[in-house]
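input
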Amino acid sequence: MRRIGLTGGIGSGKSTVASLLVAEGAVLVDTDAIARRIAQPGGLAMPAIEAAFGQSVIASDGGLDRAGMRQLVFSDHSARKRLESILHPLIGAETERMAAATGPGAVVVFDVPLLVESGRWRANVDRVLVVDASEETQLRRVVARSGWTPEAVHAVIAQQAARRLRRAAADAVIFNETLSLEELGVEVRSLWKRWASPGTR
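output
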């Protein structure tokens, strides 16, 4: 099994790169998707979240009130740490379970928004791919697709690692600033050929 860590700031185009890698044959393990799943009604994380934070962060359907929790962790660093202490072990166990279910020759791409921030992922993957874009481009993309205010996007960017730190942790960087989808695909396929070929590590 080959393990590739994929990361990038919000609005960088990381999810698009993940989809292109899947099209090339990668098996995707998306930690954000896992986080959403375990915080749905009846999800594995919900009893611990309710015990730690109370009913104020529980939505009417019994799942996590994501907007309310986002506002809380952005304003209270200790709340963020408490949430991470609940989610991260569960996410870690699920990522390894999913990876173990793949074949021995699989190329597994771990989509991890906080790969650099976590401090542990670098040692758990063979290569790190960073998708990079300027903060102005990140802001414009996220506002356009989500309807968030610029202030909300800035708050997310401020919680993520600085671009220079992500690039420093990378084995390869795709600068996705002005690339068309076709041009981005060319870069992804070129990287895939280098990293997924038999005999490469």
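quick obs: The radius of gyration is 17 Å.
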